[in-house]
Amino acid sequence: MFTGDRSGEFLFASLFRAGLANQPSSLSRDDGLTLSGCYVTAAVRCAPPQNRPTPDERERCLPYLRRELELLTNVSVIVCLGALAWEAALALLDPRPRPRPHFGHAAEFASRPAQPVLLASFHPSQQNTFTGRLTAPMLDAVFERARVLAGVAAR
């Protein structure tokens, strides 16, 4: 996921600065990238036209995301890269929260004590990074906050 594209360059550089990756980039499957204390996945598994999945496509992918989350142990924070990821995580953890938490950069939501905290960031797409909507310091701050929420000491 994200390997070899500009979104990945931005994401992996931030994960590296946060101490969650052993190198600042990933160009191929076998380039040696190792993540520590984090896992990267996607809410939608296809690349639809204009990169806009339909509600039906999002719904069909949700069971795969649910199963991945069930297989992971000790998940305390989920960083949602974009509103689509935020909505998918809400659908899995608390489909009808009141009040409904709104997506926004650095937004947080904790539904119940035993569930992971959701932490939002704008997606590291070129559309967001080239326009300055998402900057490296902004994404770095999200991962530092995730470390604090997870109780992981700074490096």
Describe the structure.
- This protein is mainly α and 155 residues long.
- The protein has a single domain, classed as Uracil-DNA glycosylase-like domain (Uracil-DNA Glycosylase, subunit E), CATH 3.40.470.10.
- 39% of the residues lie in helices and 8% in strands.
- The protein contains five helices and three strands.
- The protein has helices at 6-17, 55-71, 83-93, 126-131, 136-150; strands at 77-81, 108-109, 117-121.
- Strands 1-3-2 form a three-stranded mixed β-sheet, sandwiched between helices.
- Helix 1 packs across helix 5 (136-150).
- It is globular, with a radius of gyration of 15 Å.
Provide key terms for this protein.
3 strands, Uracil-DNA Glycosylase, subunit E, 39% helix, 3-stranded mixed sheet, mainly alpha, 8% strand, 155 residues, single chain
Overall number of structural domains: 1
β content, as a range? Answer: 5-15%
- Summed up, the helix count is 5
Quaternary class: single chain
How far apart are the first and last residues' alpha carbons, in Å?
A: 25 Å
Q: How many beta-strand runs?
A: 3
Gyration radius from CA atoms, angstroms: 15 Å
**Could you spell the SSE succession in H and E letters?**
HHEHEEHH
